[in-house]
Design a protein that fits this description.
By secondary structure, the chain is of the alpha+beta class. The protein has a domain at 62-93 and 112-281. Helices cover 25% and strands 22% of the residues. Helix 4 packs across helix 7 (263-280).
């Protein structure tokens, strides 16, 4: 029998017993995936959810913002401005496995065909993957909010990343395009994510909503501008508008300019929707997972104030 390396050193044995390290990557390896229950990354959605949520922007699902036919049910005081991404992408094949080969993510379908995903920076992909995991754990689609005093709140999964910084900058854009509207918040949200032959050939839909509160302090969408975004062209096109204040829109409003300011957010929305789809379909991610989880996603520092 091999000698105990700690024999004769009882204080080291006690210290070792007291020390409880947590290698987070290993804790995630065998988690099941299902939207609004267990998460591909974060595991059972009931583990510490309340403490996690306290460190995030206002927690809400984008469905509670309502739409053209359904009124919002969120109190204005807790509506996070910025971006809320909650769509589950549609895919034109059935994925079975997600693989990381050290350089990129690869999807394998149920007949064994491999699909290489469009290339964006690995740090960005990792940040978005982590965001989806955290949003599932706390049941929230909110990403960023800049309050009336310029204080920035952003999910911890995106804090100090290039993705988080780009989304924060996008959050500052919409209100500048509608200076004549009596609104107090803007929310950029996805309304449809379609991956066709892995390249998002079909347009991704997103909306820019402008909100204010009614006399019951409930947030109401006063105007929404709808856009289509095609990833191959990296171009967004204005498609429609709706809401009570549509007639008050400036006839010279730069619809195209606003849409182009938000193309990076649209790209991120596509990846968020894809990861949500993989979670909902319980797609296995074991090959290369450990290396993927170690990717350094840090980038531009998120300011505390804007």
């Amino acid at each position: 029998m091999a000698a105990d390396p700690l024999r004769g050193l009882p204080w080291r044995r006690r210290a070792a017993r007291r020390y409880r390290s947590e290698v987070s990557e290993l804790a995630f390896l065998v988690e099941r995936a299902r939207r609004k229950s267990t998460s591909l990354v974060a595991g059972d959605g009931n583990r510490g959810d309340s403490s996690l949520a306290r460190r995030e922007p206002s927690v809400f699902l984008k469905e509670t913002l309502g739409d053209e036919f359904n009124q919002s049910t969120i109190e204005a005081i807790i509506v996070s401005g910025g971006v809320a991404l909650g769509e589950v992408a549609s895919l034109d094949f059935a994925p079975a496995d997600l693989i990381f080969d050290g350089e990129e993510l690869i999807l394998v379908d149920k007949i064994g065909k491999s699909w290489r995903l469009p290339k964006i920076g690995l740090a960005d992909v990792k940040a978005l993957f982590d965001y989806v995991a955290r949003s599932e754990a706390i049941n929230s689609d909110a990403i960023v909010d800049i309050d009336g005093e310029g204080r920035v709140r952003i999910p911890s999964a995106l804090r100090d990343t290039d993705v988080g910084f780009a989304i924060m900058q996008a959050d500052t854009q919409p209100l500048a395009f509608v200076p004549n509207l009596p609104v107090t918040k803007s929310v950029i949200t996805d309304s449809g994510v379609n991956w066709q032959s892995i390249a998002m050939d079909e347009p991704l839909q997103f909306e820019v909503r402008f909100l204010s509160a009614d006399n019951m302090r409930i947030a109401q969408t006063r105007v929404a501008l709808d856009y289509d975004y095609a990833s191959k062209k990296e171009n967004s096109e204005y498609s429609d508008s709706w809401g009570r204040y549509v007639a008050q829109l400036d006839e010279n409003l730069d619809y195209s300019g606003l849409g182009q300011r938000l193309v990076r957010v649209a790209t991120y929305a596509g990846w968020v929707g894809l990861f949500r789809r993989l979670q909902e379909d319980q797609v296995s991610f074991l090959r290369g997972r450990y290396e993927f989880m170690k990717i350094d996603k840090m980038g531009a520092r998120t300011p505390r104030r804007y």
